[in-house]
Specification:
Blueprint: H1 9-17, E1 27-33, E2 38-44, H2 47-53, E3 58-64, H3 73-91, E4 98-103, H4 114-119, H5 126-131, E5 142-146, H6 151-154, H7 158-169, E6 173-181, E7 191-195, H8 214-217, E8 221-231, H9 232-250, H10 255-262, H11 266-277, E9 285-286, H12 291-310
Parallel strand pairs: 4-5, 4-6, 6-8
Antiparallel strand pairs: 1-2, 2-3, 3-7, 7-8, 8-9
Helix pairs in contact: 3-12, 9-10, 9-11
Function: Initiates the rapid degradation of small, acid-soluble proteins during spore germination.
InterPro entries: Pept_HybD-like_dom_sf, Peptidase_A25
Enzyme class: hydrolase
Length: about 325
């Protein structure tokens, strides 16, 4: 399971349960269906669940909705409110908390620019609290934000930058925003994951850096991410499945053979395609053609939910 490229806990669980009708030991799952979106809450409780899932212990909340790609105000507000509700459950309602928001990623690569784009829309207030010597405000909490770039641009590990900043300004918690990778094409740009387990920048594309988590930063870390890419093996596997579905529905001839191919487990198909592509260095990372507009829209949704969650006076 660890060889499949995904940052989503919901997909790690699906891979384990694909041919088993049992839940993962040490993992608690709750699913909630709403009119416009579905929320899945997964909690990894112990080392057994951690080992099977290949994820750190903690809570993973996944919001899935096609509205994430719609750029009209009504659709955005629906997801903003859903995300705000889940964030509020995790963050709590303490108005005195000081929060540092980190926008991970490379602002020069559109599919990796979700963190920096979101940071540009977050309402920062730390400078106001410091200027007016405020300890408390009815409408605002103390928020600082930074997009530290990537090591290829700065020559500095992101974790080193964030750790230095945490030591300097002493926040009560860190929120890290990043683009993720999915193993299913249907979840690209239509899924938001919130995690209390922190995040490893670059993990989705196999470029794993030092993790940003409570163990390293010494403060709670919440990660928010959206899968914006898949690899070519995942894309090919999904296209084959869609083609087989079409052939099964439209043709009686060869139906038994098509069903046999369809019955292969996703993991088996993925590795078969990956083994074919990788010797030719063709297992490339793929993102949708309208990614510019989508990232803009997603950054509005995430920043809107953060602003409403962290600042009680914002409606």
């Amino acid at each position: 399971m660890k060889n499949i490229r995904t940052d989503l806990a919901i997909e790690a669980r699906e891979m384990y349960s694909e041919d088993k009708n049992v839940e993962i030991p040490g993992v608690k799952v709750d699913r909630e269906e709403n009119e416009n979106y579905t929320v899945t809450r997964i909690e990894i409780l112990d080392d057994k669940g951690k080992e099977i899932m290949g994820k750190e212990k903690g809570i993973y909340v996944t919001i899935e909705s096609n509205l994430l790609t719609f750029d009209d105000e009504e659709s955005r507000n629906s997801i903003i409110n859903a995300l705000m509700e889940e964030l509020t459950k995790i963050l709590g309602k303490d108005k005195n908390k000081r929060t540092l928001i980190i926008g991970l990623g490379n602002w020069n690569i559109t599919s990796d620019a979700l963190g920096p784009k979101t940071i540009s829309k977050v309402l920062v207030t730390r400078h106001l609290f410091k200027t007016y010597n405020k300890e408390y405000d009815d409408d605002l909490s103390e928020v600082a934000a930074l997009s530290p770039g990537v090591m290829g641009l700065t020559g500095i590990e992101t974790s080193e930058t964030v750790k230095s900043l945490v030591d300097m300004i002493n926040p009560d918690g860190v929120i890290a925003i990043d683009a993720l990778a999915s193993r299913k094409l249907e979840r690209v740009n239509s899924t938001i994951q919130i995690s209390t387990a922190g995040i490893s920048p670059g993990a989705g594309i196999g470029n794993i850096r030092k993790a940003l988590n409570k163990e390293y930063l010494k403060v709670p870390v919440i990660a928010i991410g959206v899968p914006t890419v898949v690899d070519a093996a995942t894309l090919t596997s999904d296209i084959i499945d869609m083609t087989l579905d079409n052939l099964i529905n439209e043709s009686e001839k060869g139906k038994e053979f098509y069903n046999m191919l369809k019955s292969l487990k996703q993991e088996e198909k993925y590795h078969l395609i990956k083994d074919i592509l990788e010797p030719y260095d063709k297992n490339v990372i793929v993102t949708p053609k309208d990614i510019d507009e989508i990232i803009d829209n997603l950054s509005i949704i995430i920043s809107g939910a953060l602003n409403k969650s962290l600042h009680p006076g914002i409606n």
